[in-house]
Amino acid sequence: MRTVLGYVLIILLIPLSVLTFYYADAEAGKVQNFDDYVEERIVINEVDLPQASKIKDTNGDIYVELHQPNRIVVEGEKIPAFLKELFLQSEDQHFYEHSGVDAAAVIRAFMVNAQSDEIEQGASTITQQVARNIYLTQDRTLARKIAEVLYSYQIEKKLEKNEILDLYLNVIYFNNNVYGVEAAAQYYFQTPVDKLSKAQMAFIASIPNNPSLYNPEKHFDNTKTRQERLIDIMAREEFITAEEAEQIKNEPITLNTRSRLDKYPDYSTFVMTEFRQLVSESEGFDQQLLNAEGDARDAIQEKLSNRVNEILASGVIIHTALDPAIQKKAVSAVNNVLGGSSVQGAAAVVGNQTKDVVALSGGKDYDNTQFNRSYQAYRQPGSTIKPLLDYAPYVDTYGASVNDLVSADNFDSSFCPGGEKTCFENYSLKEYGMVTLTEALTKSHNTAAMRLYLRTGKERAFSYLDKFDFDRVLEEERYNLSPALGGFTYGVSPLEMAGAYTSFVKGTYQDPRSIKRVTDFQGNTVLKWPEEEPVRVWSLATTSKMRHMLNSVMVNGTGRKAVFSTSGYIGGKTGTTNDYRDLWFVGLTEGYTAAVWTGKDKYEESWDNIRFMESYAPHQLIWKRIMRLKKSPLVRGFFYAFVSS
């Protein structure tokens, strides 16, 4: 009864409202005619429909669809005539005859719906639905209904009928965050709209009339019933024969719903973080944020978020450096080596030539709602910092040879804080006398690294580290001793370490990036990182010497478990913090540089079987499985037995 009364009011009030406008216009001394009056107050701008953006890998394949909303705009000529006619017959039979509002349709809908238990026909024209979905809200108020009429009047003046119909077919809602016929076809049947059968077309055409009631995922029978009703209408209006109608109705409908595409959440999470940074730097938000505080800073961040969403809603393609093959290996290696334990891990892989981020593992069994350890986890790097802060700065400063000698004995009490003789001792607690730089790094002698750091000078050693993108290394730490052995206030991330070690390829550094460019659907570049010249960190001579020493670490030293057969270069460095809280391996081959971290998320959590962790070396096994070309066998059986879950 309420529905019937509502339609009665609409029938009475809409014509009354329109007449009121005309009457008021006439009584205003005919200063303006009605068209001019409406033209001033209702502006129909060019429409850019929000649609789903996409992320592509380095091969040009889509691996993420960003549903904001899930809409795929399709040109009118690609929409089958049968599907267009289905909507015309069910929603607006006199579409090509009226001027935006169909009074006869309002009366007809009232009569049909008054005799039915449900809304059989809508009173709104297709033009009114376009006005409501693009320019107005879905509120059921008299003011909104009057505005809808006026907007429809203007739309009919500005656009051709076929343009309005095409716009309608791209804006209508099909439930499940799906908008437009192309997205509906691909979501419910994983088929382009121009490849649907007539039965499938009639099925999706049934949904927008009442998206909740005709949601196929929850009320399939309701949708099927309405589909058959639409087919009967098409037969009645002689667009198909009665025989064809029966054939279409008897065709089985099998939903093949398409879940949101996000094949590699470890990587795509980082892409979206970098995308926000790209927008911020491209449009000046980063400069605004430099000195902003409190509410002002929050307001700028909100504007940035709105701008990011605006760009994504416009329909863009984010082209990335993701290498699917390496990505799968990185995720598999972390999951398999650490599976069945309470140990976590992360990995980051960077291309040596391009400095692109090609793969990331955010953690064991990662999904995109979790903390991404590959770039958000800041951990103590242990001895992996030694090549960057101790050895390379010393070699670069003094032109030292890999065979130059350094003491690996303990420091005397005059040096140590508090007079403790064993401060900054070697891991083995032994003294080794004078050793070559190569041996010192190969065996990771702490006292030798500290001596090189002190000879270079803390300030000068940090001047090299400053060239890398270590976000959470503090300014005051350049005056401390502990950084020489990997002791920082916050630490570094796996991605930062992988990026820094790429400097041992040619002696230069660039920030690792995942995004190559952002384009619209026509291929026009929307956003792109500016071209940057690589920063020279080490001389070529220093780079060559460091590569020799890093290779020795793997062949003769602490990194032997990461070694695999290769005809090219291989080098790296292990890192272990107190009580094995963090186990690192960072290394490079001819093509790629990768950093792997394993450990407990919380430092207060203790290891079981600490010595086993050292001998098992999961960080090295993960690195090896990612970097070598052929697949490695599963090696996790013993890990399950010795590490607590």
Automatic annotation (TrEMBL):
The Gene Ontology biological process terms listed for this entry are:
cell wall organization; peptidoglycan biosynthetic process; proteolysis; regulation of cell shape
Report the subcellular localization.
Cell membrane
| A GO MF term | serine-type D-Ala-D-Ala carboxypeptidase activity
The record's Pfam families line, in alphabetical order, gives: Transgly, Transpeptidase
Which domain of life does this protein belong to?
Answer: Bacteria
Q: Which residues form the Penicillin-binding protein transpeptidase domain?
A: 345-594
Does the UniProt entry include the keyword Hydrolase? Answer: yes
Listed A to Z, the keywords are: Carboxypeptidase, Cell membrane, Cell shape, Cell wall biogenesis/degradation, Glycosyltransferase, Hydrolase, Membrane, Multifunctional enzyme, Peptidoglycan synthesis, Protease, Transferase
Its family?
In the N-terminal section; belongs to the glycosyltransferase 51 family. In the C-terminal section; belongs to the transpeptidase family.
Output the PANTHER family linked to this UniProt entry: BINDING PROTEIN TRANSPEPTIDASE, PUTATIVE-RELATED, PENICILLIN-BINDING PROTEIN 1B
Protein name as annotated: Penicillin-binding protein
